[in-house]
Specification:
globular, 300 residues, mainly alpha, 2 strands
């Protein structure tokens, strides 16, 4: 049982970690909790659903080997990430940037609540409230070790999630954009004085955050189902992972996502699936009380 908890927790935690990266970067740079971030997960998943239908006529819909999906979904994933990143930038341009100029942090938080409701309602209007699926094929589990099994879908998507996480870590450490993002999050005024285009950095942060959120949404939709509330339901684990890892830390968001995933998976056999969401809240509360800076964060 312990082995299966680890498998379920790690695969789910990778998805949480992907979504938490965008959330932690946005918070570290703009200093507000964006409650609309969960809807980027939802929109990414549903955009990929539309794109799989459009691309199916070109690439075909045949699955790859024993997977329940084929190259169509992988191509749709890349396009959905690009489109959701653009959606995040558009939302910032139309709403949050204006409020940053004339409002306060609380105004940004309230606006993000409103944006979240609007984006979720748009999904419900377009796609209805019924659960949808990328494929109706049944994913067969394979034995990894005694007491441990996972579907091939989970293994492949976990590998893709790891590649995206590693790519984001390398971008933050070894590219001009990553260095600019870290500098702007530390001191935006000083970053401007040394010639960094902070506005471009903000756009890049929103784009990357939206793209990674879309990837998390596609992975969730491919392994479970698509629902208009899927991003909202994941919001508390995302915040818990971001705070646990340390605001602004990409490795921290990854580690926090894995820890939250493992904690939620362990809660299912111990307390029941209905208490799974409470685990994220308890972890978040414990971190805020005992180590507010998180595992990888720096104390102010």
């Amino acid at each position: 049982m312990i082995g299966q908890v680890v498998v379920d927790g790690v695969t789910n935690g990778a998805m949480i970690g992907l979504g938490a990266i965008g959330l932690t970067l946005t918070y570290s740079l703009l200093r507000f909790a964006n409650f609309a971030h969960g809807e980027f997960i939802t929109w990414g998943a549903y955009l990929a659903l539309l794109l799989t239908g459009a691309l199916g006529t070109v690439l075909g819909g045949a699955p790859i080997g024993d997977l329940t999906f084929g190259w169509t979904l992988l191509a749709a994933l890349a396009l959905a990430m690009a489109l959701t990143g653009a959606l995040a930038v558009a939302l910032d341009t139309l709403l949050f940037r204006r409020l940053r100029r004339q409002g306060t942090e609380i105004a940004l938080v309230i606006a993000s609540f409103g944006a979240s409701l609007a984006l979720r309602s748009a999904v419900e209007f377009i796609f209805s409230l019924q659960p949808l699926y990328y494929s109706h094929d049944i994913a067969m589990a394979v034995r990894l070790a005694p007491g441990m099994q996972a579907t091939e879908d989970q293994l492949v998507l976990f590998g893709v999630a790891l590649v995206l996480m590693l790519g984001m870590h390398l971008l933050m450490r070894h590219t001009a954009l990553g260095r600019a993002m870290r500098a702007a999050s530390e001191n935006p005024l000083l970053a401007r004085l040394v010639g960094i285009d902070v506005a471009a950095v903000v756009r890049g942060t929103w784009y990357l955050g939206g793209a990674l959120a879309a990837a998390a949404g596609v992975f969730l939709g491919a392994t479970v189902q698509l629902r208009p509330t899927m991003g909202f339901d994941l919001l508390l684990p995302l915040f818990a992972a971001a705070v646990l890892g340390g605001i602004g830390s990409v490795p921290g968001a990854m580690a926090g996502g894995l820890i939250i995933g493992l904690a939620e998976a362990a809660a299912v056999p111990l307390a029941g699936a209905q208490y799974r969401a409470a685990v994220s809240f308890l972890v978040l509360l414990a971190v805020l009380l005992l180590r507010p800076a998180g595992l990888f964060g720096k104390a102010d």
